[in-house]
């Protein structure tokens, strides 16, 4: 078990297959990094949901999660739950995103995710971001086992509760999902907190370590 301590990060990249994935998987971590670095640049890419109510929700979520950050969000309009059949457009979207940013740290789905779209995206991220630390976040699913993470970021109690509240507030289109509620979000963060001797935490898989990303962080 390792603890992640972000220090003086200037920019991060966050990538999701669908709207909501980033906020669920790394929302509290983003809040903590942005709180420490008010002028943080957040490069964000979501592959599906462009031109729909989901894009509006995603924009509102980023404004709420990290209001002081310079958020540079792109929501593409690839078909959801069909990315394997649209591999080439997905690859082009991630490649174009990579060309437009040079982040200190990258967050995306992990390659062991039970969702096919997120697994594909994880593979593309590791291919495009060859010289960066890439951390795979988890998205709770009712039909898959919990992730066995290797890296934890302890989260203050107030941040954990604020994340849970903002998720249900910012994503009303997700409210029909039986796992999308405060208790589920806090429960998973509480489990991860127990595992790293904290009250709450978010957990990650180290998908890729860069040889020289220029990042400023410590792993203990």
Provide a descriptive summary of the structure in words.
- The chain has helices at residues 21-36, 53-65, 87-99, 116-128, 157-170, 182-195, and strands at residues 2-6, 11-16, 41-48, 70-78, 105-109, 134-137, 151-155, 200-208, 217-219.
- It has 220 residues and is of the alpha/beta class.
- The protein has a single domain (2-211), classed as LmbE-like (Rossmann fold).
- A nine-stranded mixed beta sheet has the order 4-3-2-5-6-8-7-1-9, sandwiched between helices.
- α1 (21-36) crosses α5 (157-170), α3 (87-99) crosses α4 (116-128) and α5 (157-170) runs antiparallel to α6 (182-195).
- It is globular, with a radius of gyration of 16 Å.
- The N and C termini lie close together (9 Å).
- The model is unreliable at 211-215 (pLDDT under 50).
**Secondary-structure element order, N to C:** EEHEHEHEHEEHHEE
What's the CATH topology label? Rossmann fold
Number of strands: 9
CATH superfamily: LmbE-like
- What's the CATH class, please? Alpha Beta
Query: Which regions contain 5 or more consecutive residues with pLDDT less than 50?
Result: 211-215
Please report the number of helical segments: 6
Structural class: alpha/beta
User: How much strand?
Assistant: 15-25%
Instruction: Give the name of the CATH architecture.
Output: 3-Layer(aba) Sandwich
Main β-sheet description: 9 strands, mixed
Integer count of domains? 1
Average per-residue pLDDT, rounded, comes to: 90
* Global morphology: globular
Q: Helical content, roughly? A: 25-40%
């Amino acid at each position: 078990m390792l603890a992640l301590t972000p220090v003086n990060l200037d920019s991060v990249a966050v990538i999701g297959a669908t709207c909501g994935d980033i906020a669920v998987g790394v929302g509290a971590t983003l809040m903590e990094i942005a709180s420490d670095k008010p002028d943080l640049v957040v490069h964000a890419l979501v592959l599906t949901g462009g031109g729909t109510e989901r894009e509006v929700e995603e924009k509102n979520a980023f404004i709420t999660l990290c209001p002081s950050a310079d958020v540079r969000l792109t929501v593409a309009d690839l078909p959801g739950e069909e990315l394997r059949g649209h591999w080439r457009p997905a690859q082009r979207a991630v490649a174009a995103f990579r060309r437009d940013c040079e982040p200190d740290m990258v967050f995306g789905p992990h390659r062991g995710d039970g969702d096919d779209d997120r697994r594909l995206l994880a593979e593309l991220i590791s291919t495009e971001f060859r010289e960066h630390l890439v951390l795979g976040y988890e998205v709770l699913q009712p039909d898959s086992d919990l992730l066995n993470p290797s890296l934890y970021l302890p989260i203050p109690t107030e941040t954990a509760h604020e994340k849970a509240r903002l998720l249900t507030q910012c994503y009303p289109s997700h409210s029909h999902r039986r796992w999308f509620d405060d208790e589920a979000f806090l429960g998973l963060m509480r489990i991860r907190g127990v595992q790293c001797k904290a009250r709450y935490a978010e957990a990650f898989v180290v998908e890729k370590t860069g040889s020289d990303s220029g990042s400023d962080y410590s792993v203990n």
